[in-house]
Each structure stands twice: as C-alpha cells, then as structure tokens.
Amino acid sequence: MTKLKWGMIGGGEGSQIGPAHRLGAGLDGLFEFTAGALDHRAAEGVEYGQRLGLGDRAYGSWQDMLAGESAREDRIDLVTVATPNSTHFEITKAFLEAGFHVLCEKPMTMTVEEGEEIVRVAEKSGKICAVNYGYSGYSLVRHMKAMIARGDIGKVRLVNAEFAHGHHADAADADNPRVRWRYDPAQAGVSAQFADCGIHAMHMASFVTGQEVTKLSADTVSCLEMRVLEDDAMVNFRMDGGTVGRLWTSSIAIGRQHGLGIQVFGETGGLRWSQEQPNQLYYMPLGGRLQVIERGEANLSPEADRTTRVTIGHAEGMPLAFANIYKDLAEAISARKEGREMDPAANLYPRAEDGLRSMAAVVAVAESGKQDGAWLDARPPMFQ
What we know:
With 384 residues, this protein is α/β, with parallel strands linked by helices. The protein has helices at 17-26, 42-51, 62-70, 88-97, 112-125, 139-149, 177-180, 185-188, 193-209, 302-305, 318-338, 352-370; strands at 4-10, 31-37, 78-82, 101-104, 129-131, 156-164, 213-221, 232-239, 244-250, 259-266, 269-274, 277-285, 291-294, 376-377. It contains 12 helices and 14 strands. It is globular, with a radius of gyration of 21 Å.
C-alpha cells in the first residue's frame, strides 16, 4: 500500500501534542510526514521542520502551507490542526474548502455557530473532517462499544463518566501563566475544566453507548476563589436512547493523576474501564461472576482486534490510541481513493458532528451552571 502524505500545523518544538501526533501518524507506516507549519514564529517553524526532514515543505505559516500544498500535484492527503484553540475554525475551514482532509484537535471551534459552519463546509467539500477525541482510540473502549452494540449488557440504563485530576489544586501556583489562562474567559472561552477534560468523558459516553446527549443540568464551581471559570463540575444528562448520565470532572482532586473512566450499566450486565489501566475491561453479567477482559486476547471483536499491536500483558498507552484514530483515517482516505467500501471496524473516528455536539454541550454546561443547575437543551440548533 502506498503511504499517504500527511502534514501538520502547530505542534512545534517543545510542545506536548506534536510528538503524540507524529508518533501516532507514523506508527503503522500508513502516513509519511511530508509538510508542516509547526510554529507561529516563521523562522523557528521552518528550521524545526527541516530538522524533521520536511525540506522545502517546511512552511513559515499555515497560509503559506495552504498555498504551497494546493499548488502541488503530490499534495498532502491529510492535515492535522494542532494550534491554539481560537485558531482551529479558520484553519480547518480554509483547508476543507481547498479540498484537504482534516484532523482537528479539540475543541473544533470556539462557538456552536462556528461548529455548524464546519459541518456544512465539510459536507459541501466532500472531505473528511475528524476531531481528535483520542481516548476513543483505545482498543478496549472500542470493544466496550462493540459489546454494548451487540447486546451483551442489554438495554443501557445508566452511564457514569468522570475525568478528574489534581494538577491545578495548588493555590500558590494559580497565577502561573501556564495554569491561569485555562480559567480566563478571554483565552479559554465559556468553560475551563469541563471544556478541557469533562468533554472527553461526555464524548466517551456517547461513543460507547451509541447515544447522543439531549439535555443536561450542571453544577459548576471555582473552588479556588481567584478563578473566573470552573475547576470542578457535576453534570447530570439524558441521552436520546433513554439512558441516564452522570459526570464529574475536576482539576483540584488531589491524588488523582489522569482519572478518565467510564462505567455503563444495562439490564443484564455492567462494564467498567479506566484510562490509567487501559488494558483491562471489567464485565459483570447479571447473576454471574466478574470477568476481566484483557487487551490482546484473541477474537474479542473486529473493532478491538484491528487496534491492538503488542502481545497480551504488555501495556499500550495514549500514543497508540492516537495511532488508532490515524489508522481509521488512513483506511477511510484509501477506500475513497480506491473506490471501495471502507472496513466498518475502522469507521469509528470522531467526526465534525461530534465536535459540534461537544461545543453545544460545553455551552449548555456553562449556562446551566450560571442558572443554578437548570435543565437545558444540549443539542446544537442544527440537530434540534
């Protein structure tokens, strides 16, 4: 199979997100890192890109990259947008309109209106617009989704999701610029902790159950009084398949490191998974005994089998979850090029519609918090 050409905007030297994407895109040998505009400082971006082997396809700005790649017959097949949040809309829209497939870091946009515009542009262009809710790439999260879809736990009654850490709990560090901006509406938007972390838990609830959030009620608080936006939130929600949802997210939970987890309870069983122990999925059938499903076991499900790489008992972590998103996109793009149906087990990458629904939920949580937990419609107007 010929390698697809991949480019990146943002993720320059010293960034956290850049190496994760470059590892993920390159892991399976499906993409070749071909072009990039890696830094808002033009000279530094070009120099770093050339050190990574991009040659004359190391660009000084995303505008230069758009013009340069649009003019090439061997243009990139996919571009990843990993720039500051407020720039996602403009860059994603421009590349879609120019005929490129796009993977955008979350949040896809800063407003619901911008999100609806991206959905329309992607549909009109006929190009893929994916959003990097990377935790949905974990093998056993996909197996959980498959188990629920085939009825292993019966009709889903309740989902309980959380994403809590304690890394912003130190009041003495609250004025650190690397922390402070996250709680500043001028830089972060309408929400802090829910938009940063809680939305991953809500997306996962929708991903594994196959249901969408319709309404919600939120209690948002700033436990550190100097913060304008919330550092802790409790959210109750309802889904379109009748499932009840509970979600907690916090950045002041001392002792928690990266506490993303989900539990799903149905009429005939329950499932539990934690991102800090991603290689085990716990399954309890009604009236039965607790079962531990290990990543790497043979013949789990097509969705799990195609997204596991190392043998059972060896840890697979976040870069491999990212790699599974890229593997999905490689299959989707290649299938289009070859005029064939894509592997249905790969058709799981998060779409622009997911990014839009997430932005609508963020806005609803922020507004519900202001209204002392009022129940609000969590759907974007486009889907009401």
